[in-house]
Design brief:
Blueprint: H1 2-9, H2 14-18, E1 24-28, E2 36-38, H3 44-54, E3 67-69, E4 72-75, H4 86-89, H5 104-110, H6 128-136, H7 141-163
Antiparallel strand pairs: 1-2, 1-4, 3-4
Helix pairs in contact: 1-3
InterPro entries: Acyl_Trfase/lysoPLipase (IPR016035), PLPL (IPR033562), PNPLA_dom (IPR002641)
Organism: Monosiga brevicollis (Choanoflagellate)
Protein name: PNPLA domain-containing protein
Amino acid sequence: MLRKLLHALLPADAHEICRECLYVAVQPISFTKPPTLVSEFFSKDDLIEALIASCYIPGYLDHGFTSMFRGQPHVDGGFKDLVPRLANVLKPGERGVHVLPFPDWVARALDIPIEIGPSLVPENVFRDVELFRMIFVPPTEADAWRLFAIGQQAGINYLEAKLA
């Protein structure tokens, strides 16, 4: 469902639009390796595979054990570190934004600031308990579209606050 959703939402040149302004953290299956930030994508499919690799939980997105990205098996980085600290993966001088789908109390418990997330959108139709459940149980397709709209609004709210 996620791959289908991303193909429907992203324009054909999404990989070019995102080049060097979107950084996706991917975690190779080797847990001795740190997450890698990917900011150059070869195609729309390459971008989509990076996005899926960044959040791939075995048995959640499909029945596989890993997601293949650029010929290597990957899993959600949460298996090693629930949310990578940006300071640990960014190069000196780079700035990142934490985009988290968690309820704000989960982020507070992890001591991670949420800069873009559903809890920051007044129009959010999901209660915290529903967002927390979706960490473990995939949402319906209708709820996935609602979450997308909420995430999109959270991004707009973030940008408007930064530009104000």
